[in-house]
Write a structure and sequence with these properties.
The complex is a heterotrimer of chains A (748), B (101) and C (142). Chain B is an all-alpha fold and 101 residues long. Helix content of chain B is 73%, strand content 0%. Classes of the chains: A alpha+beta (748), B mainly alpha (101), C alpha+beta (142).
Chain lengths: 748, 101, 142
Amino acid sequence: MTFAEFSIDFGLACLIAALAAFAYGAGAGIWGGRNADRRFVDSARRAVYAATALLVICVVTLEAAFLRSDFSLALVADHSSTTTPTLYKMTALWGSQGGSLLLWAFVLSIASSGVLFATRHKHREVVPWATAVLCGLGLFFCGLMLFAGGANPFERLSPVPAEGAGLNPLLRHPAMAIHPPMLYSGYVLFSIPFAFAIGALIARRLDASWIRSTRRFALLAWMFLSVGILLGAGWSYVELGWGGYWGWDPVENASLMPWLVGTAFLHSIMVQERRGMLKVWNVSLICATFALSLLGTFLVRSGILQSIHAFGESTVGTPLLLLIAAVLIGSTVLIVLRLSHLRSERRVESMASREAVFLVNNVLLVGLAVIVFWGTFFPLISEAITGERSTLAAPWFDQYVTPLAILVVLFTGIGPLLAWRKVSAGRALRLFGPPTAFAGVVLIALFVLTDSASEPGALIMFTFAAFAVAGLIGEFLRGASAQKALTGDGWVMSLGRVVVRNRRRYGGYIVHAGIIMAFVSIAASSSFQDTDDVRMLPGDSTTVGDYELTYVRPTAFRDLEEQRLTFGSIVEVRRDGEVVETLTPSRNYYSSSSTGTVRSFFEGEATSEVGRSGGASEDFWTAMRPDLTEPAIEDFIATADQRIDRITIPDELPDPATPGGQATMRQIAADRSALQGIAITNLEGRFEDGQIPVDFRINVNPLVIWIWIGGAVGVIGALLAAWPTASARRRRVSDVYAARLAKDLNRA
Amino acid sequence: MEAVLLTLFVVAAVALFVSIPLRPGAKNAEERIEDPELAELEARKEAKYREIRDAELDREQGKLSQADWARADAELRRDAIEILREIDALEARKSRLSPRH
Amino acid sequence: MDPDRKRKIRLVVALSVAVLLATALVYTSFSASTEAKSPSELLADTPAGSVEAYGKVLTEETLPDGSREFVIADPEDAAATVPVTYEGQVPDPFREGRDVIVTGEMVDGTLIAEKDSLITKCPSKFSDEAEEDPNIVIDESL
């Protein structure tokens, strides 16, 4: 047995052992919880550590198989090839059912190890049950891999193919490479606060301590989910010949719903931590967030909804659905049983308080999630009610989401300006006055100086955003000035110090700033987009918005290694008569097989290379698509293929069973390759010199770059808010010291 | 056949690892666990401190008038002292019960 | 008014608003939706108004003016086919053999599609059949 074969067997053994470890961990956790037996809780925690190590081995084994192009593994043969670039060989692991389930289990085990290590001396009553829940989830996903059909990443192929299928060229993009791990990390990390919430419910320990230990995991989950969503939207915008970043497609919505409810959760827990309120909200929100995360995982692979991403029927759909049902039913029952323990310690004193705004915020975000949920599942709902499957398209979503999104932006601005309990009576004017005035000025300016009034929704969004931004700036200035008064330092120092000393608050404000940026640019780029579809010949020009586009000339080249033919263009973009940018949008044609025909290039995958020129104020975007039915191209392809066949294929075919026959077959293949190369060169010339019409789609998208910038700002803010405070670190050291001291005193 | 043996070997290694706390000579697991009641009081103390700091920040930022802040701060400090007293009482009770004395 | 009563009133108002909005949501969704139909359903009972058709592309042709004519087949009954006339954005993965969704109105047996309403599904990642035969096979072309 070779080392390669051994490593595959070893990897599979580790996966089975991980299943066993999770199964044991779930049982030991339950036993340790019911009987307050600490030994079994520690043993269960070790089971999680073990499962983590085992899953690491599984991942390493599979990645090694990808790197050496070991096609005895179905996973590698189906998603990689010898010509796939190394980066995509490694990221192809999660391009398959088995691989993505393994990724889920892998991230789950690492996060679980982390949180269980951090809480190994804490939460005596909650941790056993949380461990059991996490192990149960690990058991489920490992079980899916091993027992659901077609989901085993270690499945072998026999006979071993000589070459793999390669990665779909649409996915050969860095954003697409890390989009799944980002999304999955987001989904999986929500399981940590979920598990602790369930543990807290079972153990009746419903104070804020379960939140304190898992708050950072929730924040990290939110961060990863945000990055994953932004990557998907960004990839769609720059890679697909469609020019949009969001289509309200079911799979997109599947990632948005947990994000919305997760955002509500992150805000709502602040209220419970400080004021002991909204306890029922918090446990309900985290259970809903996690259920929606599972739903997101389910939607992508179930095929129950028509979607651009739907990956077809699969065997793991039903089990996932059952798990989601179990999570929902189990959490609901637990919450109802423990309602008496979830009573708020206080009441909302005034509507002009942070607590009240956070409550409104919960309602708005959950409302948005409900709308998205309803629209996404409407085909199934309508089928159940009327017998007819009906779908709701993007305009319906826009119609309902826009007003709520506008309100969310408004409250993003109101919240930071308020205090806990209530704001003093006279202060409201001083706090709200300047931002409101600023918003008023912005409203008038936009009304008078631009045509924003044509889109009232966008105009209102901009006005509220101006209010919110002004409010945030006020918060930073007030904080800095108070700090300055205290220490006498300069403005910059004071600002830095107050932000660092109040990381959670100011980190949150930075996240708000990012969100506002993103919402404003979404409103601008969707409401005020200029777009045109035009067919042009070389030399033609067209006007879109303030720009003039000239199709200067066609280009053609090929990449032998990637088996790709590119028909492209050089276009000049002018504004006010001046050439602003020269772009090269193109279309790539990937050969579908190595049969040595010219037509194979046009029967494989085709992708667009977008021509894009972006600035702070707007993006110029264009994609092209040559008309290949033009006789100069179409006829040539047909005759070229005929000639290649006539030249290379002998009247009598050799017998492939004999060595001589095989040699002849190889020679034929080589001849065909060479002739194909000559034909392609000829074809390239025809495209470059001929007058082949090309369809251009041109978009001018205002402010679109601020979506990504806003997202980045939001992520930075989240990191800042999650950063451990120095005092927390000091406290941990003194805990350990105190424990050791007590132990020493005991022995003495 | 080798695959089955391999799997059993790995599972055995895992079993060895997870059973360490269950063996008779294992360290007393109870020792370093924090007392949940104490933990809850500590959490409430931290929350109360955060409320006091937040109220101060709110006053600095002009959201609370001096009078409102003074009232809230006094109430919060009263609550905090109450919690500290409870912590002391709990710790005293524990040290009385522990074998040290 | 004592705080408890204020809270109850607030709760009632909030719930009423929620119920009203939910009703509006449900009502408009049924009227704003388009029915999803397979080609065999379209052939059996041609509906009036906008309909969303889905199926696998059998043949496709680009006309000189850039518009497309293609035929979609029912995924469950390859014999049931509907021709489609389409103008507008054509997604990158569109070609024969791909699953598509397109919205339009049936006129004389042909679906006249709404502009830019064509959606093409990305090739399946999770199905059992491999998209391409990974072996180098010469007799495909022989």
